[in-house]
Amino acid sequence: MNQLIECVPNFSEGRNPAIIKQITDVVESVKGVKLLNVDPGKATNRTVVTFVGTPDAVVEAAFRAVKKASEVIDMSKHKGEHPRFGATDVCPLVPVANITMEETIVHARKLAQRIGEELAIPVYCYEFAAQNEERRSLANCRSGEYEGLPAKLKDPNWKPDFGPTEFNAKAGATAVSARNFLIAYNVNLNTTSTRRANAVAFDVREAGRVLREGDPVTGKIVKDKSGEPVRVPGTLKKVRAIGWFIEEYGVAQISMNLTDITVTSIHKAFEAVCKSAEERGMRATGSELIGLIPLQAMLDAGKYFLRKQQRSTGVADEEIIKIAVKSMGLDELAPFNPKERIIEYQLESQEQLLREKSLVAFANETASESPAPGGGSISAYVGSLGAALAGMVANLSAHKRGWDEKWDEFSEWAEKAKVHQNWLLKLVDEDTLAFKQMMNAFGMPKSSDTEKVARAEAIQQATLNAISTPLSVMETAFESMEVIEAMATIGNPNSVSDAGVGALCARTAAQGAYFNVLINLGGLNDKEKVAQLKQHAEELLYKAELKEQEILKIVYEKID
Fold first, then answer.
1. Active-site annotation holds for 431
2. How is the chain split into domains, by residue range?
3. What CATH number has the domain spanning 357-559?
4. Which of 39, 203, 429, 431 is catalytic?
5. Which residues of 94-105 are buried (b: 16+ CB within 10 A; e: fewer)?
6. pLDDT band (50, 70, 90) for residue 223
7. Of 56, 82, 399, 536, which residue is the catalytic one?
8. Could you give phi then psi for residue 162, rounded to 5 degrees?
9. What is the pTM of this model?
10. pLDDT in tens, 317-341
11. Is 536 a catalytic residue?
12. Domain boundaries 4-178, corresponding CATH code
């Protein structure tokens, strides 16, 4: 798989769509890059752009964007609510897939050097790309903002990492970094007071507030033995926050950067703001996500709020995300479309997958003249229905009147069922893909000896894939029978027949996938491997058939 990095530059223009489009057009002009999101803010006069791609392509796209921004944005005329010091204010690179932070740092510094040398823009490297500890902090690098740049550039301690020390009045300076995934997240308050909002921000941000004697606002600052102000830390680690008033919305917000969501999640940040606001006589009315968010962060949030309601978390991702959106009021200021705001959804293939088709479309596709989807995909789909039935019984049991104390137990069973269901749905498409790989291998040229060898190797690899996919269907279908059996035994007795149908589906999936294993084993040259795979498949089928009979016995006993 390709290495992927994300770039999230912030440009100091949020009010003129024509200027913003000129910048995003040059991003999209680079092959190997996908523009994911453009999020302008009028009050901040700032636009957050998100794109992803292979490292070299992302570096090229970022360079072109910085160059274009320096041409179309004049910082000497810029005003906005957000701290800033350049036309391209910040340009962080974020490792996404198959790339380490150390490798990302190399690309970040390569980009910074190009910006400094080719565009004559002073560049400061921060976060992981920083070359000394003081510059790890973006706040330190950007201190004084645009207006303070002329003096800052003359200070030997703040010589740019790359580029000139001369003040670039039009473009300002740019901060480039390699960093972990950062979420820019704002919580709305039912107040117009920036001072009150800042009080909440100081409560929650890691840096907290300066300790004062007596009055917390006007009292004398308490200093330590070295003369430095003593700080009272906030409640949230890895969080930067300020309070501000957004005229566009007519409310004050807590504007936060969650710099490590494995330490402080989006829902933990929301809850902390809610608590602080309530203690200060205010209320959080909703929130606003800037840019994109990983799928897992939204799922974690939705599950958190479902658990607070003592509801099962083993439901569809769409339902979990909906709960997250409503619980945090992410749609208060504007509609929240998960397909546009969740990074994994943005990266999904534009080609419609089999598992995303309607029942009728899937059936018609199966019945067409094409040999795929065939029995392998159908076996996986039947197995997913069996796991889905197990999940349904678990969720009904978690919601059953009088069983309130059991909701957590059944929620765990529903989660297990969902894992099996989702994997089997993925295998629906994997089986068809394996078939296409086989056809492609057989279609390879075979004129020369070299081509014949390459073709033979490709056929053997494709054959192995065509065996491993139905084997995975068998394994997953059998594993799902653990949940099905549990639901037949301890689940809502009114749904025991559904558990029985789930068992029939799981066994059918195993049997059907077994046929696919057998028919493809004949094309594998490694006889020892053939014997191993056949034995494994036979054992799985035997166990699935035996487990089906055990489950059906429970079902019949309860129905009778």
1. yes
2. 4-178, 183-344, 357-559
3. 1.20.120.680
4. 431
5. bbbeebebeebb
6. confident
7. 82
8. -145, 155
9. 0.74
10. 999 999 999 999 999 999 999 998 8
11. no
12. 3.30.990.10
